[in-house]
Amino acid sequence: MASEILTVRSLRARPVLLKLERPIVARIATIADWPLILIDLETEEGVTGRSYLEPYTTKAMRYLVPALSDLGELLRGRSVNPVDLYAVARKSLHFVGYQGLAQIAVSGLDMAAWDALARAAELPLCVLLGGSVGAVPSYNSNGLWLQEPAAVAAEAVELRDEGGFTGLKLRLGRERLRDDLATVDAVRKAVGDDVRLMVDFNQGLHLGEALQRCHALDDRGLEWIEEPIVYDNLDGFAQLAAELKTPIQIGENFYGPRDLMEALRRKACDYVMPDFMRIGGVTGWLRASAIAGTAGVPMSTHLYPEVAAHMMRLTETAHWLEWQDWADPILQRPFAVRDGLLHIPDVPGVGLEWDEDAVSAHLVP
Question: What is the domain extent for residue 329?
Fold first, then answer.
């Protein structure tokens, strides 16, 4: 095992734009092109840590790429100690706030720093952090958007069979409640009773609609109902969680571990699913998972399946990994999914290597 101390030389952030095979069609947005920011944290010792960010909109990359470049300048010459870099980077953005784009930029840096450290140690990230390489239960989240019930049901069979998945997530929020119910019933009939079904409203309802629709769904045997209302309405989520039999899932919009703690304190959910670019990367996840573990609350992931798989091997209350392959076109070796399990490669770091030809073809000028 290598034991050299790494020193930050530079941070390179490159924006790319990929076409989604199955475009996102949700109540609050339609997205056909998926933006990624590829991060390379280069060190004086020749080790490069890699991560990426998924900021949803192309315009957001105009702000995040310069912010990441600024962090690279700030940290040049510092030792690659991820917890220290995380603290310094956050403190540098204190006056613009610890949430929003500032937190997202710091999270991207953090994930790359941990990858570099694990590569230098010649260990997979989960092993460096005290865990082991293995398989992680995953559900397929690659589609099932707001289409007609028959189309969603047919796609559900495709998604189930892509990797032998035992869990699928479909999106709800159509104009008419009966169309949402018909879609859930059509998918259930198509994939059978052994497949777990999660539903996500993508924050598309006001509280009154959510009360009506979630109660109507409450006997459908769903694994969870995700974000029916806007993410920061914790009082509304607390009401839903108290009234419904189906678990309420939130968390992709937690900006740091304190947001998770506040949601649990206010009994706003039954499950949590932080997003790596908002929770604080690997460092933020470790802190958030300790809170969830202490509270005994099941914890799932949101996006970023590669780093997410490593962290789920360390999470006390690990529940489900959200599988989506949207970054695969620019990866040399996408992770494998078999029998509904994401398999972590036994290689140093997270396991991200860019396909530079594909990156060049999709770079945003």
Answer: 128-343
